């Protein structure tokens, strides 16, 4: 099963928002075929594995880290191919949380007389596919907030360099960009940094871009609004700003930018509404890159699944605080019982996962 999960990882950055899946065929103690889900919309891991088995499949045992599907999606049900191949038993790490499958795959296999074992390395499998598990069961994207700050808690300062973190941290962030469906920033970050939010330091595809701009205030020619390589650009504005600046909205929409309108009680967009809307555009994971008030709003709204903070050995002595909290935020204390630390170049990376979506 560990080998299945290693195979599954080969699809990282290529299959999203679908799950990472690997499959093995075993005869006796010998692995006779390996397969994995290689690209979004392509054959599922089980089918890839069956296609690569050169010998007979009858009487073999299949290992797979997700329950085989029993539905017609972009491809026909894997259960049918498994049954037709004469496989004798199937070992599964976890049930598929996709409501279209959810136990139906296991039942179909059992009905056909195949021996099924489910739950092998289950918690590892859930961790591997935590992004998929989150979005498919909650119908809202997995949210990963990434902060790069100084020791004294600032993300930018008057005399600070543009990038305060180490080159190793920067490369890791670019890898994360390639692995998420979208990156998200607020209007303040667009104004201050005019970032491109593309993947430049590693190989991989550019994520879609989401800008939270309640007042529809950003420059129409900002770098993030350039639809480089056809990536999607989603501009989230308040209903009121969209109505007041109809011509600007029309110009942006004519360029293919998706302008999404939301209620904004107290001038702040409803972030849960933003996330559900993005999910309807098949965005299953989001990397939140700034700035200060966006970080605070996400944490205060309790919609964060993963928080990664790069702490650079630097004291700025002032500037923009990492979490520009509101009064409401100050009343909340969050202690992390479960977290990890790593070194990335000269920085320390603090990572915490929130259970049940923060
Ligand atoms: C995958 N790859 O290896 C397995 C999946 O739209 P479809 O037809 O590609 O089906 C996607 C669903 O199929 C997915 O949400 C999951 O429930 C199930 N299994 N999907 O993309 C795979 N085994
Ligand atoms: Zn399938």
Characteristics of this structure?
alpha/beta, binds zinc ion, five-stranded mixed β-sheet, Dihydrofolate Reductase, subunit A, Cytidine Deaminase, domain 2, 29% helix, 13 helices, 358 residues, binds ligand AOF
Describe the structure.
By secondary structure, this protein is of the alpha/beta class. It has 2 domains: 2-131, Cytidine Deaminase, domain 2; 140-354, Dihydrofolate Reductase, subunit A. The chain has helices spanning 2-9, 45-51, 78-84, 104-111, 122-128, 130-138, 167-179, 187-193, 239-244, 246-254, 271-279, 292-300, 327-330; strands at residues 22-27, 30-36, 61-64, 89-92, 115-118, 142-150, 154-156, 182-186, 208-212, 233-238, 258-262, 285-290, 306-312, 320-321, 339-344, 347-353. Bound molecules: ligand AOF and zinc ion. Ligand AOF is lined by residues 15, 18-19, 21, 37, 44-45, 66, 69, 73-75, 96, 98, 101. The site of ligand AOF has 15 residues, from loops.
CATH class annotation of the largest domain: Alpha Beta
Which regions have little confidence, pLDDT < 50, spanning 5+ residues?
A: none
Strand content: 15-25%
Structural class: alpha/beta
Question: Element order, helices and strands?
Answer: HEEHEHEHEHHEEHEHEEHHEHEHEEHEE
Number of domains: 2
Overall pLDDT score = 92
Q: Roughly what percent helix?
A: 25-40%
Under CATH, the topology of the largest domain can be stated as Dihydrofolate Reductase, subunit A
What is the subunit organization of this protein? Answer: single chain
């Amino acid at each position: 099963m560990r080998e299945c999960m290693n195979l599954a990882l080969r699809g990282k950055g290529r299959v999203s928002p679908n799950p990472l899946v690997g499959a093995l065929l075993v005869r006796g103690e010998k692995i006779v075929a390996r397969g994995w889900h290689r690209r979004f919309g392509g054959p599922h891991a089980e089918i890839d594995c069956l296609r690569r088995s050169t010998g007979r499949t009858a009487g073999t045992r299949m290992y797979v880290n997700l329950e085989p599907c029993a539905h017609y999606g972009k491809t026909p049900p894997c259960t049918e191919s498994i049954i037709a191949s004469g496989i004798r038993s199937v070992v599964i790490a976890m049930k598929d949380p996709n409501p279209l499958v959810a136990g139906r795959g296991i039942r179909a296999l059992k009905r056909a007389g195949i021996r099924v074992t489910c739950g092998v390395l289950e918690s590892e499998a859930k961790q591997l596919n935590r992004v998929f598990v989150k979005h498919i069961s909650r119908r809202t994207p997995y949210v990963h907030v990434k902060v790069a700050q100084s020791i004294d808690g600032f993300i930018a300062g008057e005399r600070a360099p543009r990038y305060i973190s180490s080159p190793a941290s920067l490369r890791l962030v670019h890898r994360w960009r390639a692995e998420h469906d979208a990156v998200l920033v607020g209007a303040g970050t667009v104004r201050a940094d005019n970032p491109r939010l593309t993947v430049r330091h590693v190989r991989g595809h550019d994520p879609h871009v989401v800008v939270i701009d309640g007042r529809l205030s950003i420059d129409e020619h900002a770098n993030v609004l350039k639809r480089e390589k056809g990536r999607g650009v989603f501009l989230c504005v308040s209903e009121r700003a969209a109505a007041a600046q109809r011509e600007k909205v029309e110009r942006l929409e004519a360029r293919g930018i998706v302008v999404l309108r939301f209620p904004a009680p107290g001038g702040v967009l409803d972030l849960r509404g933003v996330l559900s809307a993005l999910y309807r555009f098949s965005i299953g994971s989001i990397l939140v890159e700034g700035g200060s008030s966006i970080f605070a709003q996400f944490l205060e709204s309790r919609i964060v699944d993963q928080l990664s903070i790069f702490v650079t050995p630097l004291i700025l002595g002032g500037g923009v605080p990492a979490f520009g909290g509101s009064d409401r935020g100050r009343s909340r204390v969050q202690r992390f019982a479960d977290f990890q630390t790593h070194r990335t170049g000269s920085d320390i990376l603090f990572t915490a996962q929130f259970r049940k979506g923060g």
